[in-house]
Specification:
The N terminus is likely disordered. The protein is globular, with a radius of gyration of 23 Å. The chain is 19% helix and 26% strand. Helix 1 runs parallel beside helix 5. The protein folds into two domains: 93 residues, Purple acid phosphatase-like, N-terminal (Immunoglobulin-like); 296 residues, Alkaline phosphatase D (PhoD) (Purple Acid Phosphatase, chain A, domain 2), CATH 3.60.21. The protein contains eight helices and 24 strands. A hairpin with a 7-residue loop joins strand 3 and strand 4. The strands form five sheets. Strands 11-10-9-21-22-23-24 form a seven-stranded mixed β-sheet, covered by helices on one side.
Length: 533
């Protein structure tokens, strides 16, 4: 019997995934060859150091050797290079507790991911790398509390959307100075767009990329883009200051990609090549574990972190397994397809994993750390949104898969997660919203809160005047705070309450600007809903 076009297409995708995962198209296994002696004439640690994905007994330590970071190979030769990492219990590195050796390989852009184990829970450690006679900056890492520990406080930041051209990264300097337990980076660490001298309206960017930076498609393109972004001193300071829990959104690959497709309708075979290149570069530049190493175009990015009995945090992936945006994507008034029961944001396996994790957790706070707006949100009131007399939804968010959102709300109910918090980003604006059992009925019981962090530097937009802003609030009675300033959100969590400080940078047109708190909102444990402070 002849195969149908659909089954033929699916078979080709399966074969493509298998070929890419086997390393037949440029993503090859790391060689096991011995490292050759090397001596650097310039700093090989231009991209800084980072820690991430902590556990009660350790964490991941990352660096990449790149004396000339914007070159195709970072200024490195083909040979493997010996790298040593030292761990101390003091910031001056006078009490070295451990020294471990690893090898940096060309196949991974001479990046290293050292998974440290056997340390004490709930405490700071300090580290540095050494290679070819050069020493890296010193970084601070921190282990998670023991699973049964009862931490009195947890302090962290949620941040992302850091387009290079958009402006300077003063918010990252402020995050570094906050001395936090960790940073949740929700995504859009890089933007894949090519060089442009000005915005669409002709306004010159605060800074520009080199002119030889095209739109990212190849592994070299993505590697150079990460190298440019990670060369920023404020971002390097933030990575050195505390562990990161990295995720990714769309711009790490292509704007508004979904599953095996992008909005340009690139044939899946070609898009999977691009996705494989992009995820390989993401792994090479993030402090994540070997479990997050891509297998061709696929990566297991969802994972969980437990902060004793205080908080359980699930990092979700809302891109790789989602349904394609309904009704052609965009801001739409009326899209019946968005409400289809089979639509998903997480995919079946991830949904099952999340439901089980929520049910098994006894932590005071259950946290969903993910990329895009979770709550319903009517965009009427913005100058570029036509008022069609009905709510206007962005279907690239959970508003494009309402049944998937309902399933997550049901999971929270089933797990008796009375202190549910959703962390999100992507919109380049700061929002605080209450979540209701029935997203279509703001009078239904409040079941949690969403804190959406604004962008580090990516351009946003706001209603044109106070009347339009008032309309926005009327159309979204669950919206309790809105801001169009750049910055991040700082969270302070105790067993009794959760406080979110929305931190803003007045100008990203020049470096070195201070951050200040423009609004603080809180939740009292056991009482879902927001309180303004």
């Amino acid at each position: 019997m002849a195969s149908s076009p659909t089954s033929h297409r699916l078979d080709r995708r399966t074969l493509m995934r298998g070929a890419l995962g086997a390393g037949l198209f440029g993503i090859v296994p790391v060689s096991a060859g011995a490292a050759a002696p090397v001596s650097f004439s310039s700093d090989p640690f231009t991209l800084g150091v980072a820690s991430g994905d902590p556990a009660p007994d350790g964490f991941v330590l990352w660096t990449r050797l790149a004396p000339e970071p914007l070159k195709a190979r970072g200024g490195m030769g083909a040979q493997p290079v010996d790298v040593t990492v030292e761990i101390a219990d003091d910031p001056a590195m006078t009490r070295i507790l451990r020294s471990e050796r690893t090898i940096a390989h060309l196949e991974l852009a001479h990046s290293v991911h050292v998974e440290i184990e056997g340390l004490e829970p709930g405490r700071d450690y300090f580290y540095r790398f050494r290679a070819g006679g050069a020493d890296s900056p010193i970084g601070r890492a921190r282990t998670l509390p023991a699973p049964d520990a009862q931490p009195k406080q947890l302090r962290f930041a949620a941040a992302g959307c850091q387009r290079w051209e958009g402006g300077y990264y003063s918010a990252w300097r402020a995050i570094a100075e906050d001395q936090l337990d960790f940073v949740f980076h929700y995504g859009d660490y890089i933007y894949e767009y090519g060089f442009v001298a000005a915005d669409k309206d002709g306004t010159a960017w605060p800074r520009t990329m080199p002119k030889d930076f095209p739109t990212c498609y190849t592994l070299t393109d993505y590697r150079r883009r990460y190298a440019l972004y990670k060369s920023d001193p404020d971002l390097k300071a933030a990575h050195a200051a505390c562990p990161f829990l990295p995720s990714f959104d769309d711009h790490e690959i292509a704007n508004n990609w979904a599953g095996d497709s992008d909005p340009k309708h690139t044939p899946p075979d070609a898009f999977l090549f691009r996705r494989a290149m992009a995820l390989q570069a993401w792994y090479e530049h993030m402090p994540v574990r070997r479990a997050q190493r891509p297998r061709g175009p696929d990566v297991t990015a969802y994972r969980g972190f437990r902060f004793g009995t205080l908080a359980d945090l699930a990092v979700l992936d809302t891109r790789q397994y989602r349904s394609r945006q309904p009704c052609g994507d965009g801001f739409l008034a009326g899209c019946a397809e968005a409400d289809a029961a089979d639509r998903t944001m997480l995919g079946a396996a991830q949904e099952q994993w999340l439901a089980a994790r929520l049910k098994q957790s006894d932590a005071t706070w259950r946290v969903l750390a993910q990329q895009v707006l979770f709550a319903p949100f009517d965009w009427r009131g913005f100058p570029w949104v036509e008022d069609a007399g009905a709510p206007v939804f962005d279907v690239d968010t959970w508003n494009g898969a309402t049944a998937a959102r309902d399933r997550v709300i049901a999971m929270l109910d089933d797990a008796k997660a009375i202190n549910a918090v959703v962390l999100s980003g992507d919109l380049h604006r700061a929002l605080a919203l209450e979540l209701h059992r029935d997203g279509r009925n703001p009078e239904s019981p409040c079941v949690g809160v969403e804190f959406l962090a604004t962008s580090i530097s990516s351009v946003g937009g706001a209603p044109a005047n106070d009347a339009a802003l008032a309309e926005l609030y009327r159309n979204n009675p669950h919206l309790k705070f809105f801001s169009d300033q750049r910055g991040y959100t700082r969270h302070t969590v105790t067993p009794q309450h959760w406080q979110a400080d929305y931190r803003a940078i007045d100008s990203i047109a020049a470096p070195g600007q201070p951050a200040h708190t423009i609004r603080s909102l809180a939740i009292e444990a056991g009482r879902p809903g927001l309180i303004t402070r």
